[in-house]
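ok trying again, last paste got cut off:
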Amino acid sequence: MNVEDVASAIASNDPSVGLRASLALHRLAERVEADHVASARAKGWSWQQIGDALGVTRQSVHTKYNKES
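nice, full thing came through this time. structure:
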């Protein structure tokens, strides 16, 4: 699905189309966030720095992304 298709789906009056587009965007955002958290950790960022950048507590980001838990 390209950007124009997603934009059209989000603006759709059909809830099934709009909700599927919303789910696709949510999944994409989760993947992007996970990739950047992994990159930040690889570059030595602390959980506090990552949490601050995401606007959440260090505990919540650590719980969500720490591979050792």
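cool. The mean pLDDT is 92. The chain has one domain: 3-65.
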